[in-house]
Amino acid sequence: MTDVAFAAIDQRKVAVASQWQLVWWAFKRHRLAMIGLWVTAFFYLIAVIPGFFAINDPSQQNARAAYQPPQGLHFIDTAADGSWSFRPYFHPTTLKRDPQTLAAVHVPDTSRKIYVTMFGEGYEYSVLGVFSARTHLFVSSEARQPLFLLGADRLGRCVWSRIMQGTQISLSVGLVGVFLSLLLGIVLGGISGYYGGRIDFVIQRTIEFILALPTIPIWLAMAAALPQDWPATLNYFMITVILSLTGWAQLARVVRGRFLSLRTEEFVTAARLDGASEGRIIFRHMLPSFASHIIASITLAIPAMILAETSLSFLGLGLQPPTISWGVLLREAQNIRSIATAPWLFAPGIAVVIAVIALNFLGDGLRDAADPYNK
Amino acid sequence: MLKFIAKRVLWMIPSLVVISFMAFVLIQLPPGDYVTTYIATLAASNEVVDQNTAADLRARFGLDQPMIVQYWKWITGILLRGDFGLSFEWQQPVGDLIWERMALTLVLTFATLLATWGLALPIGIFSAVRKYSIGDYIATFFSFLGLAIPSFLLALVLMYLAAVEWGQEVGGLFSEQYLNAPWSLAKVWDLIGHLWIPVIILAVSGTASLIRVMRANMLDELNKAYVTTARAKGLSEFRLLMKYPVRLALNPFISTIAWLLPNLVSGSIIVAIVLSLPTAGPLLLQSLMSQDMYLAGAFILLICTLTLIGSLISDILLALVDPRIRLE
């Protein structure tokens, strides 16, 4: 962080600013990282209250809406006399049979308009299991004509609402998995870097070994070992454990590298000469000086976890329906026939890509901001 | 140098022992065994298997012995006789089933590695030399996008485009007439014609991260004094680049074999399942699902061993290129 980075800020303020303050100032200058921060924050907001952003009950099956294509929203409502107003509406569809192929086709009825109510009442959902609510960001004003913003799947379930619901599982798998890897990584990497010697040697070889293994075959084998009839929460927890078992090695390496370089720093020697205990040296003196770097590494590890969960669930070895995650949703798009008839089933994939890009930008920005030698 | 290689090769032995044991434990993990699955399949077609038959079957497959005995039998069979055991599901020796698939997996991975280097090297150099140009921004944008798109999604999108827009099926590695044909020059040519789609899909994410690495390394080197010296001596810009900074920035390319290879193999398994390629992926998934343990074990063992050998090669190459590594 050079003077250039803080040209706009009063030099006297820079001199007395805390480290976190400096990191935040450097971070704010990184435009892509700021966008990443906002998008990530928005995604996690959805993950906390997916029900509010959903339109229809994500598990509600509707035989008449099977493979219903996305219904476009019209925002400007023109009345018969030519005056117009801002009032979103959509055309309801009716189910017809193609006279030649006998396939079901959804024909929009352009003569009718169904308005969309903001903050309207819809199906009842629970907020983090604490209380339940009925208010949604937007709902169809007629309960009998549900709005399928991103179409419906094979069983007529609303794709949009399912993506919203899936956000909760997919994003939290990343967090929980990274937390578990971090726990392993900090403990083992810390021991390895701080004590050195034989322990370091053994842990280092283990890390190298794990990093040299292709993860997918091992994940597949471990995930195949999970009984299919386990309850959803246990299954979810075990998947995150499996993901973090191979994910901790990278973090342990980062932690060890930091410990090694800090061990010989003068302030650590000074603390030792002062008679500080080992725990105090590690947690009070060393940990704060690389915490920002670790946070950046974690942020970059979350998208990898999200992608891993998506891949596993996509192959049918990760989370099992009726649990809804982005990977489980993408299973619907697994064969060529279903994606050729219903390309909107790809939509969860777009959510994955946006979330991963945002987290990558955020992590990149954090890493640059947290590096005191960055120019 | 020889000492370094010898040390590194010796290190492979304990790693291989651990890998083989791990592969065996992994395939033993699922509750029940193949006989359970087999009985369940029979029960689905209303055939009842009594306890004695089940016990007989277990004894025949050696499933009733303690795990360590089974492991010992398995690993000695592989080492001494090259016998990977019997696939329960296919009722064939595992060796007959895997070699062609493993060879195709190797071909696919190697082709992807070459494609990744071939794409990432020039783009990374360009991106660094023309820093903050439009080309650099485009390269950066695509490398972030490449990192974020899971390879199976890319494969699905390509399949969709091929089916809907161009009206043809993507998938497989051979045309129909060559599917069961013996190997010939025409079949190899056919393979190359089909190989490029999975190669491109797989190369995307590796290329994306390598571009970032190459760009960062080049940027570090470009500011060094020797570059200025070379320029002052009147070297042409292209020769100067190729002669000094690129050579230094190449190190990570060699070391990428070590970390790119596991990713490539992992990615190739998923992509192969989606595109139904005749490589290890689909058969591995199927054998895991049906608890065909010797087949799954052979795949996991071979895939992990190949990856370890890959990282061994990359370590040795790196030591050859960069003397600093050896001295560590």
Structural class estimated from helices and strands of chain A: alpha+beta
Question: How many helices of chain A in DSSP terms?
Answer: 13
Helix/strand order of chain A = HHHHEEEEEEEEHHHHHHHHH
How helical, in percent, are the residues of chain A? 55-70%
CATH superfamily caption of the domain at 94-222 and 248-321 in chain B: MetI-like
- Provide the CATH topology of the largest domain in chain A: MetI-like fold
> What's the alpha carbon Rg of chain B, rounded to whole Å?
24 Å
Q: Count the strands of chain B?
A: 2
List segments of chain A where confidence is low: pLDDT < 50 over at least 5 consecutive residues: none
How large a portion of the residues of chain B is in β-strands, by DSSP E? under 5%
General shape of chain A:
elongated
Question: Can you walk through the features of this model?
Answer:
The complex is a heterodimer of chains A (375) and B (328). Chain A has 13 helices and eight strands. Chain A is α+β, with helices and mostly antiparallel strands and 375 residues long. Chain A folds into two domains: 51-157, no CATH class; 163-374, MetI-like fold (Orthogonal Bundle), CATH 1.10.3720.10. The radius of gyration of chain A is 26 Å and the shape is elongated. Chain B is mostly helical and 328 residues long. Chain B has helices at residues 2-28, 34-44, 51-61, 67-81, 94-129, 134-148, 151-164, 185-222, 225-232, 237-243, 245-249, 251-275, 280-289, 293-321, 323-327; strands at residues 86-87, 92-93. The mean pLDDT of chain B is 78. Classes of the chains: A alpha+beta (375), B mainly alpha (328).
